[in-house]
Amino acid sequence: MTLRLLLLLPVCLAVLAIPRVAPAAETPETPGAVADNAAVSPSAPEPSAAPDQKAEESPPVVTAPAGDNAAAIDNTWVDRSHDFIEMCLFTAVDWCDRLLGGEMARDAEGPRAAVWWKNDFRYDGLQHYTFRTAFRASIRLPRLTRNLRLVIAAENQGDPTAAIPVDPGTPGANVASPTRASSAGLVYDFFRTPRTFFNIGGGVQVRASPDAYARARFQYVQPLGAGTLGRFTTTGAYHAREGPGVSNQLDFERRISPETMLLWANSASLSEETNGWAWGTELSLSRMLSGNSSFKIGGSVRGETRPSFEVQNYRVYTGYRRAILRSWLFWELEPDVNWPLRDDGARDLVWGATMRFEIYFLGAGEAKRIAPPPPLPPMTPPEVPKGDG
């Protein structure tokens, strides 16, 4: 018996000395045990002290998935050309801002140049094909002054279907104007609050015989309840050749849901070129369908008060708008039906459709950090020229 015990003792000692490997699915018995599914060796040295909790850990190395082709999609010659234009815009504006201005506060907004270019292709039942292009640039130099900005606008012709002016008093920016115009001017903000603002502007209308202009604008916004507000805007303008003019607008907005908005816009304008008061009213319903598309439906009426109060045109329309391929490129299709007034007093039903392309450029130091806004109705990315307000 004693001999058997002496023979088994070395065997037991040899077996107990083999390191034990923990299975991958084994749960530690004590809360303080390390559960990293790694092999545990009793021969491994123990740490002399607990690790310092304040010590900075090296960030993990993140590698892109092998199937991620985002770089290939967003780094084509189109994107490189767009980025090059934005870089040139920012470089030129920043150089002018540093040359003309002084030091800038750390929390101040940097210089920026925003460019908006729109092209409309329209065809109607009268076999009229119309091409309209509009261009607008807004430049801010905060080192020179925070309240002043340069506005450059041009269009080859007005929008024949527009019932509400967009930027009255500024040549080349008012879509309701039927003539070709281009201008360059300065806009100065006297004051601006969450509800009101007042600014003045002046410049030169560029044409064969240049024409100087000046305008002043005041706007007041009044909340009318949950999701509802009223907006009153009045603009007075003077053109050296055309004389004085005034435009008043009263808008009501109702946010029915986060994706749906109802807008009722009204305007009345008087100038040397109009027959009495040129008035218009438009009711539209817009809804965001997804993160990059929206749908709208609406109708408008416009007319004049002299020689008699007459409605010049009735219009109903619908439209679909979306960002295509890039966040800075938009496409829109807008079919409509019009009932214009003829010289003999009769009206004809005229159908038509407009296909629109819009491109935006933002030359700013933080341009790459600014996420493009979703196309909420109405879709207005940063610095989109819906007016100088």
Question: How would you describe the overall organization of this protein?
Answer:
- This protein has a single domain (76-103, 110-369), classed as monomeric porin ompg (Porin).
- The protein is globular.
- The protein is mostly beta strands and 389 residues long.
- Mean pLDDT is 74; it is low at 1-72 and 366-386.
- Strand 12 (310-323) and strand 13 (329-340) form a beta hairpin.
- The longest helix has 24 residues, at 77-100.
- Helix content is 11%, strand content 45%.
- Strands 1-2-3-4-5-6-7-8-9-10-11-12-13-14 form a 14-stranded antiparallel β-barrel.
Topology:
Layout: H1 2-16, H2 70-73, H3 77-100, E1 112-124, E2 129-140, E3 148-155, E4 181-192, E5 196-205, E6 211-225, E7 228-239, E8 243-257, E9 260-271, E10 278-290, E11 293-304, E12 310-323, E13 329-340, E14 350-364
Antiparallel strand pairs: 1-2, 1-14, 2-3, 3-4, 4-5, 5-6, 6-7, 7-8, 8-9, 9-10, 10-11, 11-12, 12-13, 13-14
Summarize this structure briefly.
The protein is 11% helix and 45% strand.
State the CATH topology. Answer: Porin
Provide the structure class. mainly beta
- The CATH architecture comes to Beta Barrel
Order of helices and strands: HHHEEEEEEEEEEEEEE
Return residue spans where pLDDT drops below 50 for at least 5 consecutive residues: 1-72, 366-386
Q: Can you count the beta strands?
A: 14
Supply the number of structural domains. 1
The CATH first-level class comes to Mainly Beta
